[in-house]
């Protein structure tokens, strides 16, 4: 009852927001307004049981509550399967959250064997195929929840699903399901599309992860190539056309390229073109930059998203006078909310050298980091969806369209909050720190991260990871030397001499 009440209130808020937005000529966007066809494929075999099946139904209700259920946004279908699949809720039948909750709660437990492949094929050929708005749907998502090994083949069915543009998440419950089968069911990479729960009693512990990943799939259409893998997010150097509008200059390492923004460089783009589906509830903002001269004393927005009426939807503001960093976002109760990071650590950001600034934004908290060191973490009130009919800008004086001259090497927004742990500041030379280790027991992995050409010699940047330490060095190789991980192996000895004693 409480869930239905909250969902009803949220639906009214979304409706009123849409009416106001339409009147004002602006539109809010985010996970709840994503245009999805979402199909749950739920194991109802004998191994589940009535009690645990009821827990699965509640989990589905909790996950779905982040979306606006309507013909304009997300439509939901539910398939229960055992020996045969049974369509419990047709796609788009229920056009409201409260109605959908009642329908999910009324699903009766099936019982039987575990024919997962057959259920997935049924979803592809009958449920997704029956969508009345196939041409308008931006995301076709399937979530398979199972606690046991399938008694039929799943690979062919999943290959067929992916061939038709359907993204599959696999949720394994308990210890009877095999990891290999979950991986074969889900899209790649498996660390994004495969989730585990110890049992049905604890399945709600992965609720936040499931919600975040469904949201990432809904609002983060682009990918960033990071260390031989793709991360969902927004490469703002490219999206904001910084690479074409600004002059390229040497970066923090000889292997890095940066861009010099001058007072005449206008970095402004339509938000619809940068964040067409809004922002995810959690994200990581990363900027590698250098503030020189008078720029280090000014107050300006390093990055900001503005509504059509110039109201801030999201912003990272640097205040050189008091050496602080401010994060601004929306609020459901106020016009906006701000968090000011006042500790001494941000002061080094204004010393004229290269630094990496990182903000980890979650639904109820924001944390700031400078060169991998935590500055501070603060609580956030619930946020509102952002308006997307305005502009997104970089390096603008607060309250004006005047550009502040800065040097910028990296500007990214990752959709996965865990990328905060993986995104180190190894490109900042001063971050390389001594450690203690045992030479004979060192397990070291080195990769050739990037290279540039200087004076007819290729400059290779090698990044090595060992004993939870990650750092990079650059060195030159002749043109005929192969650029690969092998090129980095000789650096192991150098690393041990530099960092071990």
UniProtKB/TrEMBL annotation:
Keywords: Collagen, Cytoplasm, Extracellular matrix, Hydroxylation, Repeat, Secreted, Signal. Residues 37-210 form the VWFA domain. GO terms for cellular component: collagen trimer; cytoplasm. The keyword Secreted applies. Its main location: cytoplasm. InterPro entries: ConA-like_dom_sf (IPR013320), ECM_Assembly_Org (IPR050525), TSPN-like_N (IPR048287), VWF_A (IPR002035), vWFA_dom_sf (IPR036465). It is found in: Cytoplasm; Secreted, Extracellular space, Extracellular matrix. It holds the Pfam family VWA. Residues 1-22 form the signal peptide. SMART domains: TSPN, VWA. Belongs to the fibril-associated collagens with interrupted helices (FACIT) family. PANTHER family: COLLAGEN ALPHA, COLLAGEN ALPHA-1(XXI) CHAIN-LIKE ISOFORM X1. This is Collagen alpha-1(XXI) chain.
């Amino acid at each position: 009852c409480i869930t239905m009440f909250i969902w009803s209130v949220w639906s009214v808020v979304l409706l009123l927001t849409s009416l106001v937005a339409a009147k004002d000529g602006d539109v809010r966007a985010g996970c709840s307004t994503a245009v999805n066809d979402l199909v749950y494929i739920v194991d109802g075999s004998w191994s589940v049981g009535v009690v645990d099946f009821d827990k699965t139904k509640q989990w589905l209700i909790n996950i779905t509550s982040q979306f606006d259920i309507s013909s304009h946004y997300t439509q939901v279908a539910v398939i229960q399967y055992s020996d045969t699949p049974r369509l419990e809720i047709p796609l788009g039948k229920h056009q409201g959250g409260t109605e959908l909750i009642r329908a999910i709660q009324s699903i009766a437990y099936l019982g039987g064997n575990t024919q997962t492949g057959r259920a997935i094929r049924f979803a592809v050929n009958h449920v997704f195929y029956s969508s009345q708005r196939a041409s308008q749907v931006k995301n076709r998502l399937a979530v398979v929840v199972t606690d046991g090994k399938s008694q039929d083949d799943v690979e062919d069915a999943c290959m067929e699903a992916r061939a038709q543009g359907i993204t599959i998440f696999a949720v394994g419950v308990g210890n009877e399901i095999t990891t290999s089968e979950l991986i074969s069911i889900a899209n790649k990479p498996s660390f994004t599309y495969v989730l585990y729960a110890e049992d049905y009693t604890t399945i709600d512990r992965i609720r936040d992860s499931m919600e975040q990943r469904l949201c990432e799939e809904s609002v983060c259409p682009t990918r960033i190539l990071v260390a031989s893998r793709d991360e969902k997010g927004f490469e703002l150097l490219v999206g904001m056309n910084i690479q074409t509008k600004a002059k390229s200059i040497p970066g923090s390492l000889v292997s890095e390229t940066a861009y010099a923004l001058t007072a005449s460089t206008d970095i402004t783009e339509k938000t619809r073109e940068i964040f067409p589906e809004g922002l995810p509830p959690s994200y990581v903002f990363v900027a590698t930059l250098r503030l020189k001269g008078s720029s280090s004393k000014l107050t300006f927005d390093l990055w900001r998203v503005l509504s059509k009426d110039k109201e801030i939807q999201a912003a990272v503001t640097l205040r050189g006078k008091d050496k602080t960093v401010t994060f601004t976002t929306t609020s459901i109760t106020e016009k906006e909310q701000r968090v000011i990071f006042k500790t001494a650590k941000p002061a080094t950001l204004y010393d004229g050298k290269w630094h990496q600034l990182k903000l980890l934004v979650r639904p109820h908290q924001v944390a700031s980091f400078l060169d991998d060191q935590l500055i501070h973490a603060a609580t956030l009130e619930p946020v509102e969806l952002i308006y997307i009919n305005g502009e997104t800008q970089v390096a603008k004086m607060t309250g004006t369209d005047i550009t502040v001259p800065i040097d910028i090497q990296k500007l990214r927004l990752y959709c996965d909050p865990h990328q905060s742990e993986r995104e180190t500041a190894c490109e900042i030379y001063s971050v390389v720190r001594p450690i203690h280790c045992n030479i004979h027991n060192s397990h070291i992995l080195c990769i050739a991260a990037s290279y540039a050409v200087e004076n007819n010699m290729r400059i290779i940047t090698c990044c090595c990871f060992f004993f939870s330490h990650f750092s990079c060095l650059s060195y030159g190789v002749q043109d005929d030397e192969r650029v690969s991980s092998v090129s980095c192996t000789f650096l192991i000895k150098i690393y041990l001499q530099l960092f071990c004693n």
